[in-house]
Amino acid sequence: MVLKQPRHNGRGSRDLEANPIFSREPVRVPRYALPAREMDPRTAYQMVHDELMLDGNARLNLATFVTTWAEPEARRLMAECAAKNMIDKDEYPQTAELELRCVHMLARLWHAPDPRRTVGCSTTGSSEAAMLGGLALKRRWRHRRRTQGRPADRPNLVMGANVQICWEKFADYFEVEPRYVPLEGDRYHLGADEAVALCDENTIGVVAVLGSTFDGSYEPVAELTARLDELQERTGLDVPVHVDGASGAMIAPFLDPELEWDFRLPRVASINTSGHKYGLVMPGVGWAVWRDAEALPDDLVFDVTYLGGQVPTFALNFSRPGAQVVAQYYNFLRLGFEGYRRVQQTCRDVATRLAGRIADLGPFELVSDGGQAPVFAFRVREEVGGFTVFDVSAALRERGWLVPAYTFPPNRTDLAVLRIVVRNGFGHDLADLLLDDLRRAMPRLRRQPRPCRSAEDAAAFAHGAGTRRPRRGGR
């Protein structure tokens, strides 16, 4: 068979441009300034794609609480809704309706007295939701003080030294004195008696964390509210509680239903959680819910006329995508109570089993075992002198595992640990592979005459970036 040249149609050459992508112009592209000219989209994509290969593998990132796996159907819905702006409730009324349904579902899950009249909203994440909860506490306290004819210029907020960095930001940005309960001995979070001792007439509230980022433990919310009840009986001080349930508020309802931490306790005024953690949504979405309308002062809610509609809004931002809210509703619809229970139970099972296997290796001692939030921390035993947790973290990174090593906050800065967060998508098989790599690293680490790395070498991971003192970790 003879191949013939195609006829020339007078419109130029019919030859195809088939240059390899790596030989295309431009040869050099500035990194910190806009290029002078546009480029082929395939070239731009390839350049960005190749640089991102230097990132760690999100599925092997055991530092983050954030969801790194989602069903294809959830991803498809998110792609379909990527262009929808959550603030345009008049233009996207059904997306707004799904947000409202999610708020009511959470209100029922957290035992609000009247879920139909509960107020709440979606946010970009649990940090924003926590700040909204803090703002409501401050505003309620200020209203009460002014009604009583008392000064309202020195608010304070009581919390454990283990709180996430967003609470330090709240205190700094909104001019509230933070009062921290330090860690003591084997108490790695807020203690009820210690918290109440810091309360006075200027205390806007106490923050209780359900699922500490340091070790996954639940703070004693019921004990705290009981002590605050006693404080009110003795002194008349009425101090509300905000529960930072960034992780635990989407775990305890399914795995610890008998645990009273939520709106069943009358002193709990508000709760925040992270939809993009154990809510199982890709980032970023959070939720803030108040027990009733009285807990959220009216003067914090704005009615905005926007694009032809009246939009009630309480948020620290304006425009944001609706994709994550839609994905949250999809997960609630898709999994239901039993599905969430099964997913969270599997995560806890993986965490407790892996924690036990690591403890059995010998050089390590558990600080927590993953029996509450599926998160656990472990330390190198004191008698081991040749390596530190920072050496172990570096050895695991060689195999792609991102396991953070860090020190605890005051008064336990002497305690350095590794922490593993077990999320949906990190199953028993991956846990066994991690354990195999940890075992393989042990002979080399044991041969070290002295530690090679310290906390200064672990600057790539930090629990936070406080302006006043070394702080801790990420949501």
Describe the structure.
The chain has 475 residues and is α/β, with parallel strands linked by helices. The chain contains eleven helices and 13 strands. It has a seven-stranded mixed beta sheet with strand order 1-7-6-5-4-2-3, sandwiched between helices. Strands 10-11-13-12 form a four-stranded antiparallel beta sheet. A two-stranded antiparallel ribbon has the order 8-9. Helix 7 (221-235) links the parallel strand 4 (203-209) and strand 5 (241-244). Helix 9 packs across helix 11 (428-447). It is globular and about 70 Å long. It catalyses: L-glutamate + H(+) = 4-aminobutanoate + CO2. This is Glutamate decarboxylase. Belongs to the group II decarboxylase family. Its EC number is 4.1.1.15.
Structural class, please? alpha/beta
**CATH superfamily membership of the largest domain, which one?**
Type I PLP-dependent aspartate aminotransferase-like (Major domain)
Percentage of residues in DSSP E strands: 5-15%
Strand count, sense and barrel status of the largest sheet are:
7 strands, mixed
Radius of gyration: 26 Å
Question: Which ranges are low-confidence, i.e. pLDDT below 50, for 5 or more consecutive residues?
Answer: 461-472
Number of domains: 2
Mean pLDDT: 90
What overall form do the CA principal axes indicate?
A: globular
Helix content: 25-40%
Known CATH architecture of the largest domain: 3-Layer(aba) Sandwich
Our measurement of the CA-to-CA distance between the termini, rounded to an integer number of angstroms, reads: 66 Å
Helix and strand element order: HHHEHEHEHEHEHEEEEHEEHEEH
- Count of DSSP helices? 11
User: Quick one: CATH class of the largest domain?
Assistant: Alpha Beta
What is the tally of beta strands?
13
Q: Looking across the biggest beta sheet, what order are the strands in?
A: 1-7-6-5-4-2-3
